[in-house]
Design brief:
251 residues; two-stranded antiparallel ribbon; 11 strands
């Protein structure tokens, strides 16, 4: 009788262990495997359509429209953001809302919630507005916009100050100078400005609420009559609905 009880307990423990193993595989291992495969496919697509704006000279056709290879896959592409020395090297799309590219990839198809970096639908598609806000997911293994959170460290920004924003009219340098850590409903996400005073108030807000500011004063920005800000935003998880925002000037 005693042996039967021990055997039953062993069977129960094996059953519990097997179930826990199954749940771990189903809930943790398998989803990560799917994300890995989806991410690899997406990176291959990005490599195929990335604008040739590096060491190789551009042809006249490419100079007139460096985004053409990407546009052949998705005509909703509006730019390409690159920050050397980071994983930030992505196309930027724009939809009629701020939901579509949270769930769908650059090719417009569902991609297991990796999404694709996208420009706020309220912003000018050519980045000519005062404030252009680009969103991207914070994924595991520093995928998508996860590297944005690293800029909370001033030393990281100092060593990664410069980025490039490729648009239809060519390549623009971006000088990153500030980092904010805010809630998703913060005034930082204001996108439509109708007066100079509203712009100045927004600049003051950045300088008062940023984690840090490098190399600029509020007056420097206010004196720039052709100021175009670029905000790169992602989740950062320090608190409920926390967002990290890297701020730069499009030159």
């Amino acid at each position: 009788m005693k042996h039967k009880s021990i055997f039953a307990i062993l069977l129960l423990m094996l059953g519990i262990g097997g179930y826990c193993g199954y749940r771990y595989y189903r809930d943790d291992v398998l989803p990560e495997k799917i994300i890995d495969e989806t991410h690899d496919e997406q990176i291959k697509l990005f490599e195929r359509v990335k604008p040739e704006t590096g060491e190789k000279p551009l042809s006249n056709e490419e100079t007139n429209d460096p985004l053409k290879p990407a546009e052949e896959v998705n005509d909703a592409v509006v730019g390409w953001i690159t920050i050397e020395g980071t994983h930030i090297d992505f196309p930027i799309c724009q939809a009629q809302d701020n939901d579509f590219y949270l769930h769908n990839g650059f090719d417009g198809r569902y991609n297991n919630e990796l999404g694709c970096p996208f420009l706020d639908y309220r912003c000018e598609s050519d980045f000519s507005g005062f404030n252009s806000i680009v969103y991207g997911h914070h994924m595991t293994r520093q995928r998508m916009f996860a590297d944005i959170a690293l800029f909370k460290d001033t030393a990281y920004l100092q060593s990664h100050r410069k980025g490039t924003l490729t648009l239809n009219d060519g390549v623009h340098n971006v000088d990153f100078f500030a980092y904010m850590n805010v809630k998703n409903t913060a005034p930082a996400y204001h996108a439509v400005f109708v007066s100079d005073s509203e712009k100045e108030e927004y600049i003051d807000y950045i300088f008062s609420d940023a984690v840090y500011i490098l190399n600029y004063s509020a007056d420097d920005l206010k004196r720039n009559d052709d100021l175009h800000l670029l905000l790169l935003s992602t989740c950062t998880y320090e608190f409920t609905d926390a967002r990290g925002i890297l701020i730069g000037i499009i030159e």
